[in-house]
Amino acid sequence: MRSAGVEKALICAWYGPGGALISNEEVLDATRSHPGPGCRMGCRVMTRRGSAWCRRPGACAGLALLFLGGAALGAQVAAPVIRPLRTQPAVTLAVTAGFRDWGPATLAGDTIIGTNMTGRGGVFAFDAVTGKPRWTWRGDGSGGVSVSAPVVVRGDTAVVLLKATYPNRLVGLSLATGRERWHVEVDVLREAELGAHEGLVFVQTTDGHLRAYDVQTGKAAWAFPFGGESGACGSRPIVTDGVAYLTGGLEAYVSAGAGARDRVWAIDATTGQEKWRHRAESASCADDPVVVTADGVFVTIDGDRKTYGLDRATGRRRWVQTITRTTDLERDYAVVGLVDAGEVIVGMTSLALVAFDPASGRVAWELPGRYRAQVPVLAAVGGVLYFQGSPEARPAPSTSGTLHALDLSTRALLWSFTRPTDEPDWPFGYLLPAGHGMWVDTYRTLLRLE
């Protein structure tokens, strides 16, 4: 391949020992968006003088994303190489922006984008290496706007969902400068977040539709009705191999009949056509995102406190599982914050981490302790599970403010990490695995741990 003029490169291993490091969806997005001559698959190389393709895709270890002048080709790939952090982490970068409460962060090439839902609300972009500010977007006024959902980056556009303004808005910003390119007024569901595929972003609206918009212009592309005209509930669409998987449906009090129990959908992300839907055992609202694996779709419906395992191709139910425990009285617990941990699907209750066998739904293991299930902090990378709480095997002073790493093969705790804050027991917030570690927010600060 031609490589003259390349400034710097990040080679993304498609698969590692713990499974996929970047998804097929992200690989296909990059290759479809930037087709090269004579080769449909492989890795694209951007140089200062142009671009070329690997002639032998196998030699590329998956997808190669090379950076041109610091701006990433295919910036929608959130983490070029993600490796598990198995040793005691250290803070290698601490970013502050003058407010206390950070929202979810998004990594786009060498830019880390943070949000704030209180105080100085808005979107804040920093150099992911040095922590230096790049730009700030605070809406129409100096008072700022509340941003509680993660920013979605596709190519050179960062799309922001504003749920605290009336009417709600989607806003397209330049990734390089933060300047507004377009905005669309649309009323979205309370729990809705953005999904994306190629040049489209999706969001669930209050009229019971999943609506797609062009990333570059904000123009409407298609709309799929999933929940009637009112009382719908929704979540964040998860897109894999060109299919958007989402939860939603009508609130139980709005509609009677079997249709009120439709809770999980698979939608063609390009056309908006339905592939399948799954009907739950009750009409409880579903607002947790699904977990998608090679052959399965997994979701907990919080209202009926049941976890479902579905066939990815057909949506047919493989199993349904309820976790019942006795504390002061016997009750069912919703297993929330599900993540794909390779050989198991892991979630959290207030009393334990729970791992399900994906094929049967059998509980493979539990890690008893005390956990903040109302705001689950869970992620799995390369055979290591990150979580927040106080496991019985290594009690923490509280269920907040301590991160742990668990070896998934041995279930041994690898490390625990805490950081003193001005307000005691301040919890860690959103966790984003990246590079050789992770980004995670805490009191007033966005941290990079490595």
Overview of this structure, please?
The protein is mainly β and 450 residues long. The protein has a domain at 8-72. The protein contains 1 helix and 43 strands. The strands form 12 sheets. Strands 21, 22, 23, 24 and 25 form a 5-stranded antiparallel β-sheet that branches. The longest helix is centred in the first third of the chain and has 10 residues, at 24-33.
Mean pLDDT: 79
Counting copies of identical and different chains, the oligomeric state is: single chain
Which structural class should the secondary elements be placed in? mainly beta
Strand runs, count: 43
Strand content: over 45%
Low-confidence stretches: 1-79, 252-256
Q: Describe the main β-sheet briefly.
A: 5 strands, antiparallel
Query: How large is the radius of gyration?
Result: 21 Å
Percent helix, as a range, is: under 10%
Counted by DSSP, the helix tally is 1
Which term fits the overall shape?
A: globular
* Cα distance spanning the termini: 33 Å
